[in-house]
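Chapter review: from sequence to fold.
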Amino acid sequence: MNQSLLAPEILHHALSLGAIGSGLPYGWQFKTVSLQGDTINLTAERTPDGQRTVIMSWLKQYPQLLPYSQVSLESLSMTIPLLQTLQKWHDKIMPIEPSLSSVIDTQVALGWQMTDLTTDNGLVSITSRWTATKETALSELVSFHQMVSQLPVTITQLDITPSGTVGYFNIQIRFALMGQNKRFIMKKYMKWIVLCVVTLPAIGYLFYPQSSAPTPVPPVSQYQSIATSSLPEPPQSHPSIVIKLDSNAEKIIQKSMSWFKEN
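The token string follows.
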């Protein structure tokens, strides 16, 4: 990831070289802008009517291009080195979604054809690659530049060729978006989860209030009197109930007793 080239820089130089190729003098035909390793190159060919003196005079009008240009009898080439990498994203890698879906959906909405979508799962990161193709104006590269300027995106293939229609080009770009693997995120935090599960009970045990030692109870001697003030009072005895009968009741009982004796 650290050595991958930064997509915004590639798009910026591709747009510049495409504009330069479109403005070449008579007799020199723009052929392509392409990504070659860690450089981006423009190539142009001399037509039967082209003259070397003409292209040299044209280059003198743009002295900033001379260190990157090479002119032969048949061709012109410009090679610009690419210096910016994804190094700044090394400690800022983020989940790949929803950024991936957002970028692809935006490119589709702009009319680009998406092909060869692949995903590579690494131990730490995940890389999604896709190819965007369209016949369009160079100005759309500005939209791409704004789209990926705040994302860990690189470009592994880029080709720009004239389409035959004035101001339009066949553009093909292969993007790669890098994000953090969800499994790595789980592994990254799993050790902290395990640590908390193991240590929290131990910490709680250390700080949990401990009960005081039980107070010893002195033995009770068999001669030691025991207080009974807390015991309830025993029930009070009541005199037996005496039932007195009137004279009629006594006569009835005596007659009943004499009858039982006779029988």
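Two observations follow directly from the output. Strands lie at 28-36, 39-46, 69-71, 75-81, 113-121, 125-136, 153-162, 169-180. The radius of gyration is 50 Å.
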